[in-house]
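**Discrete fold encoding**
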Amino acid sequence: MSFLNEIQSRYPNAISFAAGRPDDKFFNVQYQLKELDTYVAYYAALNNQPETDVLQGLGQYNTTKGIISGILAEYLHNDENVTVAPEEIIVTVGAQEAFAITIKTICNADTDVILVEDPCYIGVTDFAKLSGIEVCGVRMTPNGIDLADLETKLQIIAASKKKAKLLYLMPNFQNPTSSCMPEAHKAVLLTIAEKYDFLIVEDAAYNMFPYHDRPVISLKSMDEFNRVIYIGSFSKSLFPGLRLGVLVATQYIDNDNGKRLRLADEMAKVKAILTVNTPTINQAVLGGVLLKNGCSLASMNKIKREAYKVKRDAMLDALHSHLGHLDETDPLKRISWSRPEGGFFLAVQLPFTITEDHIITCARDFSVLICPMSFFYLNEGGEKEIRLTFASLSAAQISKGVQQLSAFLKLAASKVCKKNNVPEPGIQHQS
């Protein structure tokens, strides 16, 4: 990611298909900051306090778990069909802190292994490695994590005398592949977690952004065995600068003396060391927005997800227009792309390996920044794939960017073919 940031800074006018950011035209920062007053009035009435005292209190250190847990419990019930008690919720500094808290609370570097989707979001794998914890990748399929490969990896870990403690995954609209687990697969996954005694960290970053009208089913809402730790973010629904996430842990753990402890309470101890408490003013803003909207973000996100669907369609149309009519002699053979049903990304499969030199050339000579899928794999993988993101771009930028990208891909493919002296068949498409 540092490499991509460096290329972006070197070629600032390049259209970026690499940055997975929300569209800032949907940010309503001025309006939403004013909802702090909504929260202040709510809290003052609830606790029979003067509003001035409540407002002053927001400037002070506060409880580690957060001050809006009750509001978030209603939000989770309304939007995710997840029923939890406020004391099982921790308000975090974005989802990234929630991952850090979970790993530091639960995992032992000497004995434990974290399983992850491969490829997956690098924020989790990098923090695990930084903490000295072994990470084991599990193959991905178009239907999410490969459950057969998961069981194989679990058996290998058990034979090594280590413990598979956590499985991190994004079951809905995964980053970077955009895959989505069917409900039946989610049910089987939960039974596997119960059978092998591990916890699942559900990253729900894109649950609010499907491109269909069917409800998105969170893994936590199906959690009959109490195996799922839920982590959500408000960066996409509101704006990333708010830096707020939610961590839900409904489990209990045993300490070294065999005493039964609430996992959320133990996580709060770790958070207290990391950040003391999540900024209360930011929490009050989020609390006010939620109160104003009936403790739901579904209506607010409807406009956004409809717009993101239009962007998704614009990218698919542009890919088809520029790469969908190649004849058998074209050097850009066997190219295909996914059709995401939600989220911010799609994956493109190429007939040649993408290198860092290719990324530089594409940005410098074609004014387009792309992200190799290989960046998201633990070891090998994704060498002939790129991830394209469309959420923060306009339809015009998408059209222009794909046109320029297709020109780069055709040139790169022709050079590879010329080097290898290989004749080229035509193009394939993935529905």
